[in-house]
Specification:
single chain, 323 residues, D-Maltodextrin-Binding Protein, domain 2, 5-stranded mixed β-sheet, 9 helices, elongated, binds 2-phosphoglycolic acid
């Protein structure tokens, strides 16, 4: 080996990877194929490494190459170096937060049918990530957003006039639900105006569902007969099934699996109200590595979310279609 300390450690991790591949395959050609390198490049890397060590690393017999004693010693050393490098990579990931990080998510009430379904597989990929998940209606969640209490927020109607970044990641259609035996359950293309005389049970003021439904009806000059306000999707489903009236709910609120047999979505002109789920954070916020990873995960996986199978609608690849 070279006595000059400045030249003592000329071997690079790349050369060691090439050397390791040649040793495992007992040949330069197969190492070149594995590493997507040309054979002369592989030979050159091994030659430089052997010069750095000061002894030949391989001896050639016919087409095959065999490790020399020096080569075997280097192979053991490089295995330890690869292990150490892998440990370093994991520690760096820990420092960055993906192994031990904390993810604070808040979501509007109806998003509880969507977000946990995405958090589950995300946490399986990153088992060290600890999640705090807050659920509230839109008004409550906007207050949290204004106080910058969460890493990310999921909502259907991002607030106007706030400095935020919002990104749509999945569909969030609103449908009109009725009990299965309702007089309009089998009708097609029901004019919206025909529903004006029906009793409606609506989500409470401050809910995103209510806001989106009110905007939609207002733009079409329709006033519904709102008999009751209920602050829970589950209670609304029960009340509609019990015949208390119709309602406008997110298709997701009907449950991720088979929707209640007692409910149908009415086939109304202009519906479903097509909307999206948004992932939101204050503008200028520095997202943690975990938050960045979950943001990317939602963008990649959101379009694959399944809708419930509800009489009146069918789900085709995440797109709501008339049945
Ligand atoms: P909400 O929001 O649960 O507050 O009604 C849902 C939505 O915006 O779709």
């Amino acid at each position: 080996m070279d006595k000059n300390p400045a030249k003592r450690l000329p071997a690079t991790m790349r050369q060691l990877r090439v050397f390791d591949s040649v040793a495992r395959h007992s040949g330069f050609g197969r190492a070149a194929t594995e590493l997507h390198l040309s054979q002369p490049t592989v030979s050159m890397q091994v030659k430089q490494l052997s010069e750095a060590v000061g002894l030949p690393l391989f001896e050639q017999l016919g087409k095959r190459v065999f490790l020399t004693d020096a080569g075997r010693m280097l192979q053991a050393t490089s295995a330890e170096m690869f292990d150490a490098w892998a440990r370093l990579e994991m520690q760096v990931a820990n420092l960055k937060g993906l192994k031990q990080g904390r993810l604070r998510i808040s979501a509007v009430t109806t998003a509880k049918y969507v977000v946990p379904r995405l958090l589950g597989p995300f946490c399986q990929i990153h088992p060290g990530v600890e999640v705090a998940f807050e659920v509230g209606n839109r008004s409550a969640i906007i207050e949290r957003l204004a106080r910058n209490e969460d890493d990310l927020t999921v909502m259907g109607v991002p607030p106007r006039g706030m400095e935020i970044v919002s990104h749509p990641f999945a569909e969030n259609p609103l449908v009109i639900i009725a009990p299965r035996g309702h007089a309009l359950a089998r009708s097609r293309r029901i004019p919206l105006s025909k529903l004006a005389g029906q009793p409606f049970l609506m989500r409470e003021q401050g809910s995103g569902t209510r806001l989106a439904a009110d905007r939609f009806l207002h733009n079409r000059g329709i006033r519904l007969d709102v008999r009751m306000e209920i602050g829970s999707n589950e209670a609304i489903k029960q009340a509609v099934a019990g015949g208390l009236g119709l309602s406008i709910l997110s298709l997701h609120a009907l449950g991720p699996d088979a929707a209640p047999r007692s409910l149908v979505a009415l086939n109304v002109e202009g519906l479903p109200i097509r909307r999206h789920w948004y992932i939101v954070h204050p503008a200028g916020k520095r997202l943690s590595v975990v938050a960045q990873a979950f943001f990317a995960y939602l963008k990649a996986e959101g379009s694959h979310i399944k809708f419930p199978t509800l009489a009146g609608f069918s789900d085709q690849g995440g797109t709501v279609q008339r049945a």
